[in-house]
């Protein structure tokens, strides 16, 4: 998933981003309401993790703006303001969940999965194409029932291609799914990921192919 993390505490943001990346997510990190506002417009995110006490205002201001504009992206408020009245206010303003600091990373991951399952854009968390099966909740890929390990970015590429099997996926769409705002993207980086992914799938005995649609993107198909 692509996540927007709005958190101005540097150490907290660094630690949380590392955990999210370990769970195969792409993280766009913003430190202010204004920067987060621009990020919400510029990119589609699966979940927003939103602090309240930000340098230029309350994160709930952004949340209210999103809901008034019809943006239904799931939002988890993650904040030190955790009194019952704070939680009630945040939920009434449109938050899908409200979690106080300090918190357990495992609980945040579980809450993220829960809000995504409840969202309008939720789709099956398990996809089978050919002899491949991908469990999105647990980030597990198997070929003929045997587990296959992939590096994070190759895993993210495969997720999107499998979700859109039989349709050409644009390069820009794949890059948006794999790279965050702060990542430096080499011109041939995506092609390298695709090349290595093809080789790993072939070595695992997968009966799928990833076709290059020259100048456009890539097409995932079962068989040749």
Describe the structure.
It is elongated and about 60 Å long. The protein has helices at 10-22, 33-42, 59-68, 84-92, 105-118, 152-163, 171-178, 189-203; strands spanning 2-6, 26-30, 47-50, 53-54, 57-58, 75-79, 97-100, 126-129, 132-135, 140-143, 146-148, 168-170, 208-213, 217-222. It starts with a strand and ends with a strand. Helix 2 runs parallel beside helix 3 and helix 6 crosses helix 8 (189-203). The protein contains eight helices and 14 strands. Strand 6, helix 4 and strand 7 form a beta-alpha-beta unit. The mean pLDDT is 90. The chain has a five-stranded parallel β-sheet, with helices on both faces. Strands 8-9-10-11 form a four-stranded antiparallel β-sheet, with helices on one face. Strands 12-14-13 form a three-stranded antiparallel β-sheet. By secondary structure, the protein is α/β, with parallel strands linked by helices.
Q: Provide the gyration radius in Å.
A: 19 Å
Proportion of beta-strand residues: 25-35%
Tally the helices.
Answer: 8
- H/E element order: EHEHEEEHEHEHEEEEHEHHEE
Helix percent reads 40-55%
Low-confidence blocks of residues: none
Shape: elongated
Query: What is the count of β-strands?
Result: 14
How far apart the termini lie comes to: 29 Å
């Amino acid at each position: 998933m692509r996540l927007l993390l709005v958190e101005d505490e540097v150490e907290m943001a660094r630690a949380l981003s590392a955990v999210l990346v370990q769970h195969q997510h792409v993280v766009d990190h913003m430190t202010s309401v204004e920067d987060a506002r621009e990020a919400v417009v510029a990119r589609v995110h699966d979940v927003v993790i939103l602090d309240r006490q930000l340098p230029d205002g309350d994160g709930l201001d952004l949340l209210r703006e999103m809901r008034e504009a019809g943006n239904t992206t799931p939002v988890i408020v993650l904040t030190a303001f955790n009194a019952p009245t704070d939680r009630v206010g945040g939920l009434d303003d449109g938050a899908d969940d409200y979690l106080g600091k300090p918190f357990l990373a495992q609980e945040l991951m579980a809450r993220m999965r829960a809000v995504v399952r409840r969202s309008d854009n939720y789709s099956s968390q398990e996809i089978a194409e050919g002899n491949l099966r991908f469990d999105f909740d647990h980030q597990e890929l198997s070929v003929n029932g045997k587990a296959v390990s992939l590096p994070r970015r190759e895993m993210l590429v495969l997720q999107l291609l499998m979700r859109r099997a039989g349709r050409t996926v644009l390069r820009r769409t794949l890059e948006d799914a794999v790279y965050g705002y702060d990542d430096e993207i080499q011109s041939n980086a995506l092609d390298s990921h695709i090349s290595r992914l093809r080789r790993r799938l072939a070595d695992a005995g997968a009966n799928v192919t990833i076709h290059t649609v020259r100048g456009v993107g890539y097409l995932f198909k079962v068989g040749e």
